[in-house]
Amino acid sequence: MKIESVDLFYVAMPEIRDVGDGSQDALLVRIQVGEYVGWGECDASPLTSIASFVCPMSHSACKPVRDSVVGQPLDDCADIRRIGDRVRANSLDLLQADHTLSGIDIALWDALGHRLGEPVYRLLGYRQATPKLPYASQLFGDTPQETLHKARLVRALGYRAAKFGWGPFGTGALDADIDHVQAAREGLGPEGVLLIDAGTVWGDDVERAAPRLEVLQQCQVTWLEEPFTSGALDAYRQLARLSGKVRLAGGEGCHNYAMAEHMLNYAGIGYIQIDAGRIGGISVAKRVVDAAHACGVTYVNHTFTSHLALSASLQPYAGSDADLLCEYPVETSPLAQSITRERIMPDQDGMIRLPERPGLGVTPDLAALAPYLVDVEIRVGRQVVYRTPELR
Amino acid sequence: MKIESVDLFYVAMPEIRDVGDGSQDALLVRIQVGEYVGWGECDASPLTSIASFVCPMSHSACKPVRDSVVGQPLDDCADIRRIGDRVRANSLDLLQADHTLSGIDIALWDALGHRLGEPVYRLLGYRQATPKLPYASQLFGDTPQETLHKARLVRALGYRAAKFGWGPFGTGALDADIDHVQAAREGLGPEGVLLIDAGTVWGDDVERAAPRLEVLQQCQVTWLEEPFTSGALDAYRQLARLSGKVRLAGGEGCHNYAMAEHMLNYAGIGYIQIDAGRIGGISVAKRVVDAAHACGVTYVNHTFTSHLALSASLQPYAGSDADLLCEYPVETSPLAQSITRERIMPDQDGMIRLPERPGLGVTPDLAALAPYLVDVEIRVGRQVVYRTPELR
Q1: A11 touches chain B (CB under 8 A)
Q2: Judged by CB atoms within 8 Å, which residues 268-297 of A form the interface with B?
Q3: Residues B337-390: pLDDT tens digits?
Q4: pTM of the full predicted structure?
Q5: Which of B43, B93, B379 sits opposite A376 (nearest CB)?
Q6: How many CB pairs under 8 A join A and B?
Q7: Of A50, A258, A377, the CB nearest to B231
Q8: Residue A329: its pLDDT value, please?
Q9: Do residue B96 and residue A55 have CB atoms under 8 angstroms apart?
Q10: Residue A157 touches chain B, beta carbons under 8 Å
Q11: Which of A278, B80, B118, B198 is the most buried (most CB within 10 A)?
Q12: How far apart are CA B145 and CA B292, in angstroms?
């Protein structure tokens, strides 16, 4: 069967706030293959990714992503990997292409799952999806008092693990950071798994990061996430030598397999966090799972948006018992909550289980999404190269 | 003085052919700072880069590039570096941003050079620009006979160094590649510096690359360029161990400092090739020059487009005697040849010297460019977020 069409839908909250909440907009991908439909989501700038999909060719290694996808056969898993390779070769010099490919790859797996009547994780070779321990992923409060309140709240909601990130952390004085971490530990209680996310705030500056390690060790923080930007491998490795029981985590910025491999080989991390909506989709994420296992690094999803993105990010390591934790977004926008009809909720044990349905097991709620649809038109010369498709 | 405006111009040949000629279109950047104007050029998909410049904000780390540039002060070199850091932080999750920033950074250096009455290389700390030995950069012929003809031609034109790349090389049988390399050496004569560019054709497959080393050694090839994609550090290092006197070259795919640093630290290369129009501009390229010198790797520009891009790519290592070679595009499109009024030609010794004029020392030829201007309009909701500005 051939890929008949690939449609991109830009959805956004009416007002986008200048905060670290990546769920305020989304780029959804719909793929039609015969009678089967697959959906995916890119964690990417929607307008820029749309442009990379429809842009005129610049030369043989800078083609629009669309040209490598539409019309291709989709009969088995190998076809999805082949399409990914086509995109990477034909759009080698198109930087945005990896982000755009991510949502397409996810939609291809969803469509193939529907066609073959199997959940994606089974197509990836797992016999079953093991339960994951969700950590409530949220922003630090503006004040330590607010962080304390948020930590108490997630504990009261039954979460046994929580992550606090971004917000004021790392931007000001050491004392303020200490207060925030201690507040998070106090609110979560002594037993909870506590994770801290620095959101790349120290660039590649080990000297600024290192003084924070003491409070992280005292408060039994499991990991310190993204002290540095993804490429700062030396800085990661230097900090990892100092961090003791607190392991470093990173990888959400990886937008291809090679970047993740560099993190595994050279950064000294204990956890690698991959967003299937950025790294090139489920296919590339699964390669990283296998590579992480080969070198003793624990794999975790990165997801801060919808339950469609959540399902996509969980599939690549669904059957891996050793990788217990999963990121679970708890304070996403009303838009992100509207994206799917089904939701992936903690069960009575507080664990997350992937749906036992074909494909991703979640489907977009088109009626709920309609108010968020952004109307876009791109014209090049006399030709309209993109116009928001009908959402139905 | 404040940056008053940043305008992007998409120019393209009337017909774009499906060949490895990156000079068929361009994205030019014009920056107005008080009475001073600076120009830059991105080696990037023009429409996608325009979108990254004007896209609506997605969240605090995914803002349009424009927001980090327009209105900023530009009084000295530190301002340019600060603006680059702003773009990288505010557009952390916008993959295309590095390509877009590249042209902006170049235009900022050009504008500052005009304002201070100095060539850019002097603002970078070099007292003088030393002459560079240009290598004629061109595609392989479709047949060995054609490659022979092209090599004889560049030799007759006075070039003492030439690079052949892309085309059929590496895509077919070993024998065909041997014939092409031998033809290039025969045409160039025994004394010429011969460079071979595989254009990432072997992905990360050392087994496919290694059998080509013998003919490269026999034909005294100085470097084998891009046997693999930029991120394939392990593959590079493995091949480097086998390559003997033939050194590996790579780096044109680097779109930030960290990627170049990884090539220097882990890939075993002898030459690092940086395109100022991709890596984030002159500022980032200069950082790579300094890092390369610190670890004994030779720096070379990557340029396959206009003489504006050529000047920008030469400035970062203009004063470095040790880095003698420079890439010099010899078969660019009529568009690329129209971009500047001034051209940087080999002198009577066959050497390239940067202009001793303020800024980049070359200026766009607006009248010649006008026929190539692509009319673009991007509408989001009811708002036109981009419309091709007037070129005057």
Answers
A1: no
A2: 278
A3: 999 999 999 999 999 999 999 999 999 999 999 999 999 999 999 999 999 999
A4: 0.96
A5: B379
A6: 199
A7: A258
A8: 86
A9: no
A10: no
A11: A278
A12: 38
DSSP A333-375: -HHHHHSBSS-----TTS-B---SSSBTS--B-HHHHGGGBPP
Q: Which single residue is written with the structure tokens 């304390």?
A: A148
**CB-based contact B48 A96, cutoff 8 Å:** yes
In the prediction, which pLDDT does B82 show? 98
- Which of B43, B92, B96 lies nearest to residue A96, judging by beta carbons? B96
Residues in chain A with pLDDT < 50? none
Closest CA to A208 of A219, A192, A224, A193: A224
What is the CA A80 to chain-centroid distance, rounded?
19
Q: What is the largest CA-CA distance in chain A?
A: 64
DSSP code, position B340: B
Q: How far is B240 from chain A (nearest CA, A)?
A: 18
Q: For the complex shown, is ipTM > 0.90? A: yes
Which residues of B fall within a CB distance of 8 Å from A267? none
What gap in Å lies between CA A40 and CA A46, rounded to an integer? 13
pLDDT tens-digit series, residues A33-89: 999 999 999 999 999 999 999 999 999 999 999 999 999 999 999 999 999 999 999
Residues in chain B, total: 392
* Nearest residue, CB atoms, A262 vs list B93, B98, B233: B233
Distance from CA of B357 to the nearest CA of A (A): 31
